[in-house]
Specification:
Length: about 160
């Protein structure tokens, strides 16, 4: 009887670990479009929040786009082009991407806008400086794209 309880507890523990892991993942369904030696390309449908709305046919705001995601092929699998798969990424990485892509540039723009307005007293000049601060920021992100790409890895699950 003790072994049965121990096995039951380990099964419960494994289920809890899987549920916790799934809570911390961003998951999209897609189809494999290409397989290279170490890269699998998966096409997913990225939907805006309103695209699943029942009234989307009457609204021009609804948006659906097909995007291709590259994931590393770490171990040989029997996947082939056309297979439906799940593409996952840690939520913490998704939040970091939002931080780099939207939040930091927004903060930089606001600080530049307020500072340049204080120094010059002219709204137009302050607005131009606020927009111009984005050029070097996104240029640096472009230069670091290979390093960032290695940090933001997707995983393919069949």
């Amino acid at each position: 009887m003790f072994k049965t309880t121990e096995t039951s507890e380990s099964i419960d523990s494994n289920i809890d670990e899987l549920q916790t892991e799934n809570i911390n993942l961003i998951t999209h369904s897609g189809f494999i479009t290409e397989i290279d030696h170490d890269v699998i390309r998966v096409a997913i449908i990225a939907e805006s929040a309103c695209s699943s709305c029942h009234a989307k046919g009457f609204c021009s705001v609804a948006d659906q786009k097909e995007k291709v995601i590259e994931a590393r092929n770490r171990k040989p699998t029997n996947l082939k082009v056309g297979d439906q798969v799940q593409v996952t990424m840690k939520k913490s990485l998704g939040l970091r991407a939002v931080l780099y892509g939207y939040f930091l540039p927004f903060i930089m723009m606001i600080i530049t806008l307020l500072t340049s307005y204080e120094l010059t007293g002219k709204q137009g000049i302050a607005g131009i400086f606020a927009l111009m601060v984005l050029v070097p920021y996104y240029f640096v992100l472009y230069l670091l794209k290979d390093k960032l790409k290695s940090q933001f890895e997707f995983e393919v699950k069949s």
